[in-house]
Amino acid sequence: MTVSAMSCAQVRELAPELALGILSGAERAEVVLHVNGCARCQAYVAELTEAADAIPQLAPEAEPPVGFEARVLQRLDAGERRTRRRWIAAVAAVAAAAMIVSITVVRVIESNDSTSARQEATPITPAPKPVAVPMQLTAAPLPAGWAYVSDGHGVAVSVSYGMESGGYTVQVKSPSGRAENIGTMTVSDNHGSWTGRSSRPIRAGSTISLVDATGAAVCHGTVPTAL
Amino acid sequence: MWTVSDETLVAGLASGDRDAASAFVQRFERRVYGLARTIVYDDRAAEDIAQEAFVRAWKHSSAYDPRRGSVVGWLLTITRNLAIDAVRVRRPVVIDPASLLGYDAASTDRSPGDHAELSEDSDRLRAALAQLPEEQSRAVVLAGLLGYTAREVGEIEDIPLGTAKTRIRTALLRLRAALVSEEQE
Description:
- The structure holds two protein chains of two kinds.
- By secondary structure, chain A is an alpha+beta fold.
- Chain A is built from six helices and eight strands.
- Chain A has an eight-stranded antiparallel β-sheet with strand order 5-4-7-8-1-2-3-6, with helices on one face.
- In chain A, β4 (166-173) and β5 form a beta hairpin.
- In chain B, α2 packs across α4 and α8 (150-157) packs across α9 (161-184).
- Chain B has helices at 6-14, 18-40, 43-60, 71-87, 97-101, 116-130, 134-144, 150-157, 161-184.
- Chain B is globular, with a radius of gyration of 17 Å.
- The longest helix of chain B is centred in the C-terminal third of the chain and has 24 residues, at 161-184.
- The interface between A and B is large, with 60 and 87 residues.
């Protein structure tokens, strides 16, 4: 491993240009090499990058040509067919957004594999891809966030709107109405997240709810048919 | 109606949820396309870049980390880098940074209350830029928005390379300081 010849002082001279993305070739490589091995310079570059990344927001908005959204979605659909594995990444995205240690996700995904390999799972549940469940506030028809269900047992919940701060019970209710509490999550400043597992299989028509201290479901989502 | 946070839309995008993808495009298409057009100065090229920006955002959506910046900052940085790559070989006319700084955010037909947080961010930045000496704000906009290197900024402004670098660095440090102190208020 080559040790960067650049000093911290030299790197800090060039850090603004690195943050702005205008440093070319060799200089960029040298600065990056140093920054990767120096926590203080890394933090400095990160701070400058935050400011630099705000600058493109100065550009005026403009109405794109007619049909733009449809053309973008068509390209996403084409890409989606090629990359089915992204369903797994979805759980990781929720965890990242929620600042959950990724080890939890690994555990959920690993348990996917072991569960889907087992034959005694009920025939309706072994699909390995997580299913997105929109969570809606009970008080008003507004979206509160998302839940993702993987292999019929793994659950990741992330809410970011309309929830009062406090502790909530994560509850799963089967289509027949049988309820099971599978964990607790904390919401603060409208945001909260939780990952874990349900011991009983979650299937189409199952409801995932966040229940407050009074026993009221503050938000809920019903698992769509395709699980 | 979509009132979910930008971060939640990104999570939905990563999951392959079509409604989330549609809402994501609708929420940001004017900003993405507007930025691409500002840099490449060509409607057709701007659409290609804007489309590609959304495809890239979708591909990398599972790696988006809110701790490292806002969704709009992340998406527009993707757009900016694509647009700059596209014009690096053959630069269009030089845009006067002053015309961008003087741009009136209130004149867009954005609906009231929509993206309040986003416009507040760019308003704060615009206010911070206005506090800088004009030559510094020009330098940092030429570099940070339009992607000119320090050498190119020197040529455009007819100043030595060292002076261009100093202006860019000083301006970014002051913007950073201004944004941080605003956050702490």
